[in-house]
């Protein structure tokens, strides 16, 4: 019992450390936290509940290590393996050993939610509100060097849904009221950040659940489409909403059409274009994992900026080629096989999480992003618990 309490404490610290940029050398702190998670991980069989997830993770880690032999910068490849991917493996591996019931899963989700509320308080305390409507938000100078506003928006979007599943069906009205207040505060922050990724994290699960629930209900579906059109109209025509989110959506359309003149958005498009060209030069094995930064540092447009791809697909294609892409996204094969054809709520959640992950990887390097790896863990954990519940029912019916 005491061992589990210590373990949960380090899980909470891991959540908190990856949400709030207080410690500058976060990569090294995560490495130490990963070791503590292994040290205090739940006892029992070495193998976790979901061996597919563990095998996938280990295979990907081995690939990263092997890629250091042909890497144009072995130091960069080994750095991302040791200080970014390995801590996440420790986090995911130990959680798959810990989560053996929905009670365990909800306990972990509560820790995530509490960390998110602390992040909200931190954000409110240090955010520079004078920039609302004029530019993307930032925090005070002491923290802005390591602040990723997109990550903040994504964490709040995840937390809103986590809070819903934790508190909506509770008999304690005070907890539901608290969740509503916190959710509105998080939603407001997502809007004022202008984060398209945060907005996407909010919308995709709603679309997925609406598709399941409104299938065959024509008038409800029409009503939902009308509401969506009304929201987009408001964003594009109400000055305050346009400044917060509408302009960002318009920029997205411009990027797709090739008419964007927004510097940051153009730079990301150029990064993807450059990455595609580098991939075509070494399409099988790439240049070594985490070497996109090395290539971009020597490109005339990105000289000395140490930029990564801002796109998981391009990042892995450049670093690991076709083999790297196949190894990383191989986790989708067993997941799709296991949830396909099921209509229960937990399986709908899995479908929503998969779409969120596919979407997020278009604008973030997911293979070393804690939030996205946590979502992959949730996918496997839900599938494991549902299959365990089904097997128990089968055994009970045979007795």
Short summary of the structure?
The protein contains 16 helices and no strands. It is mostly helical. 37% of the residues are buried.
Helix and strand arrangement:
Layout: H1 2-19, H2 26-39, H3 51-67, H4 74-98, H5 102-126, H6 149-167, H7 173-193, H8 196-214, H9 218-237, H10 239-257, H11 263-281, H12 292-297, H13 312-328, H14 332-339, H15 345-360, H16 370-398
Helix pairs in contact: 1-2, 1-5, 2-4, 3-4, 3-13, 4-16, 5-6, 6-7, 6-8, 8-15, 9-10, 11-13, 15-16
Describe the model.
- The protein has 399 residues and is mostly helical.
- It has 16 helices and no strands.
- Helix 11 runs parallel beside helix 13.
- It is globular, with a radius of gyration of 22 Å.
Average predicted confidence as pLDDT: 81
Order of helices and strands: HHHHHHHHHHHHHHHH
Outline the biggest β-sheet: none
Give the structural class: mainly alpha
Secondary structure: number of strands: 0
**How many H/I helical runs?**
16
Principal-axis shape equals: globular
User: What is the CA-CA span between the terminal residues?
Assistant: 33 Å
Oligomeric grouping of the chains = single chain
> Can you give the helix content as a percent range?
over 70%
Low-confidence stretches: 139-145
Report the radius of gyration as a whole number of Å. 22 Å
Strand content: under 5%
Key attributes of the depicted protein:
16 helices, mainly alpha, 73% helix
């Amino acid at each position: 019992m005491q061992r589990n309490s210590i373990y949960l404490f380090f899980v909470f610290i891991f959540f908190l450390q990856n949400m709030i940029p207080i410690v500058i050398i976060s990569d090294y702190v995560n490495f130490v936290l990963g070791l503590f998670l292994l040290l205090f991980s739940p006892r029992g069989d070495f193998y976790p509940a979901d061996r597919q997830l563990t095998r996938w993770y280990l295979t990907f880690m081995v690939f990263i290590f092997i890629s250091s032999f042909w890497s144009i910068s072995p130091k960069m490849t080994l750095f991302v393996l040791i200080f970014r991917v390995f801590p996440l493996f420790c986090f995911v591996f130990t959680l798959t050993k810990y989560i053996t019931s929905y009670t365990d899963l909800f306990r972990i989700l509560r820790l995530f939610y509490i960390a998110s509320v602390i992040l909200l308080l931190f954000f409110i305390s240090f955010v520079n509100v004078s920039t609302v409507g004029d530019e993307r938000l930032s925090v005070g100078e002491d923290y802005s060097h390591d602040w990723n506003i997109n990550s903040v928006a994504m964490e709040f979007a995840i937390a809103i849904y986590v809070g819903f599943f934790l508190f909506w069906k509770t008999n304690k009205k005070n907890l539901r009221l608290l969740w509503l207040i916190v959710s509105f505060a998080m939603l407001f922050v997502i809007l004022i950040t202008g984060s398209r990724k945060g907005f996407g994290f909010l919308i995709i699960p709603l679309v997925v659940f609406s598709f399941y629930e409104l299938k065959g209900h024509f008038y409800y579906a029409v009503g939902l489409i009308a509401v969506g059109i009304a929201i987009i109209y408001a964003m594009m025509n109400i000055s305050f909403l346009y400044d917060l989110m509408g302009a960002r959506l318009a920029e997205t359309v411009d990027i797709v059409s090739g008419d964007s003149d927004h510097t940051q958005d153009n730079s990301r498009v150029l990064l993807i274009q450059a990455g595609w060209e580098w991939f075509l030069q070494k399409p099988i094995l790439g240049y070594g994992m985490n070497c996109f930064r090395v290539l971009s540092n020597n490109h005339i447009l990105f000289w000395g900026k140490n930029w990564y791809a801002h796109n998981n697909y391009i990042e892995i294609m450049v670093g690991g080629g076709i083999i790297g892409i196949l190894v990383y996204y191989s986790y989708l094969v067993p997941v799709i096989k296991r949830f396909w054809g099921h209509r229960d709520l937990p399986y709908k959640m899995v479908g929503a999480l998969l779409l969120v992950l596919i979407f997020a990887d278009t604008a973030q390097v997911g293979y070393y992003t804690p939030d996205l790896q946590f979502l992959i863990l949730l996918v496997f954990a839900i599938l494991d618990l549902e299959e365990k519940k089904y097997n128990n029912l089968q055994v009970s019916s045979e007795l």
